[in-house]
Amino acid sequence: MQETIQILSEADAIVARQRGREIARTLGFSIVDQTRIAISISELARNIILYAGTGEVLITDLVAGYDDIGIEVIAADNGPGISDLNLALVDGYSTSNGLGMGLPGTKRLMDEFSIDTTPGVGTRITIRKWLHSRHF
Amino acid sequence: MQVPILRMNDVLIVTLGEDITDEEAISIKHDILVRIKETECEGLLIDISVVDLIDSFMGRVLNEIAEMARLMGSRTAITGMSPQVAITMVELGLKLEGVYTALTVERGFEWLKNQKTGA
């Protein structure tokens, strides 16, 4: 199962986080995990709007090994990219006059977090949460 | 989204709903501050019982509302936060500093009333 939500406006960001919550609920995630996932989508979708203008959020369910299932969210855009990844992951650092909490906060809320970014080409952030919180 | 701002005695009461966009949050902030000025209410109660998440932007706006209301001369109580919202706010690194929080609207309302008479 994969669902793609085009992010063109703030309203789409709300739709994306609602869908993420619904899919997480269907997969059996607790209310706290559903909230972690919805907040993370909210932060990533906001970054798309703020830095790239438009992009997309892809939500996929995952199966690992015998018994673990998870949810993967990819936030992708063709924006300016992140020039300093280390700084972008520091609490309180922001190039948009924000709180600088979106990326480091999302990393804390999720089990897996990775960024693929190329200046001038775009950014692709992948996050995962496992039902049994298995860390790889 | 138009959020009703009720008045009970000297307290303004705002109930935030689910799925507030960033733009709506900014407009709610503005509406609340204007109502504080109009009504000269010294207490502001924001109930978030039905709010299903507070992300970095919403957290920032809540802090701003409380600080701006304080500068104008009004105290803020935030009531009804759910466990999942409290857990994820702390994990995200968000703080509500200088804002009184209470389990229920009733307790928040009592506190605001006492701020006025007991000061």
Automatic annotation (TrEMBL), chain A:
InterPro entries recorded: HATPase_C_sf (IPR036890), HATPase_dom (IPR003594)
Protein name: Anti-sigma regulatory factor
Domain (Histidine kinase/HSP90-like ATPase): residue spans on this chain: 32-133
Pfam families, per database record: HATPase_c
SMART domains: HATPase_c
Lineage of the species this protein comes from: Bacteria, Bacillati, Bacillota, Bacilli, Bacillales
Automatic annotation (TrEMBL), chain B:
Domain of life: Bacteria
Protein name: STAS domain-containing protein
Domain STAS: residue ranges: 1-112
The organism of origin for this protein: Tumebacillus lacus
Pfam family membership, one: STAS
InterPro entries (alphabetical): Bact_StressResp_Reg, STAS_dom, STAS_dom_sf
